[in-house]
Each structure stands twice: as structure tokens, then as C-alpha cells.
């Protein structure tokens, strides 16, 4: 009977090993599938990040172009402003010279001439206590 028991126990051991091997194989398949899904998720996430990076780089280029355009507009306006300031200074000097000549002519002829002086507020409008009229801007003044 010992001989019959041995084969029975080795048969149950073999069955246990087969069951363990089957579990191990299923677990390995499950792990492989899980790893495959994980790799796919990582790949999809990487593709989304790459797409987002490309989009942000394109936006960055657009913003740089807009900033450059605003900078060029600023330089143009600054140059125009400098020209206008120089013209204003020249015209103010001419007006002062003409007023001096008019006073001299009036004094020489004995005439009373009222020559108004140019108020400083007109020469420097940014120093007005409060503007008389609101400053208006066109709709396309700040377009990029």
C-alpha cells in the first residue's frame, strides 16, 4: 500500500505544481498586459506633452512677434514725439522772438500792444491740474 500511496501523493504534488504553474502563467500574462497598458498610457501622455509643447512654442513665437511689433511701434512713436518736441521748442523760440519784436515795435511807436505770453501749461500739458477735455484714443490704437 505504501507504493500506491506514493504515486497518489506524487500525483497530487504534480497537480499542485500544475495549478501553481497555471497561476504563475496567468499572473505573468496579467502582468504583461498591465505593463503593456502602462506603456501605452505613458506613450499617450508623452504624445500629449509633445503636442502641448509644440502649441506653447507656437504661442511663444506669436507673443514674441507681438512684443516686437509693440516695441517697434513704441520706437516709432518715441521718435515722432521727439520730433514734435523739437518742433515745439523751435516754434516757441520763434514766437518769443516775434513777441519781442512786436514789443520793441510797439515801444518804438508808442503803441500799447497786449501780447499774451505762452502759458507754461500749454508748453507742458502733462502739468495741467486737470485736463479740460478727455483724451480719446482710436479703436485700433492698440491692435497688434
From TrEMBL:
Keywords assigned by UniProt, alphabetized: DNA-binding, Nucleus, Transcription, Transcription regulation
Keyword Transcription on entry: yes
Location in or out of the cell: Nucleus
GO annotations of cellular component type: nucleus
Cited InterPro entries: bZIP (IPR004827), bZIP_plant_GBF1 (IPR045314), bZIP_sf (IPR046347)
GO MF, one example: protein heterodimerization activity
Major location (coarse): nucleus
KW Transcription regulation (keyword) present: yes
Example GO BP: positive regulation of DNA-templated transcription
Residues passing through the membrane, by range: none
PANTHER family per UniProt: BZIP TRANSCRIPTION FACTOR 44 (PTHR45764), BZIP TRANSCRIPTION FACTOR 53 (PTHR45764:SF34)
Entry protein name: BZIP transcription factor 53-like
UniProt source species: Nicotiana tabacum
Lineage: Eukaryota, Viridiplantae, Streptophyta, Embryophyta, Tracheophyta
Gene that specifies this protein: LOC107769807
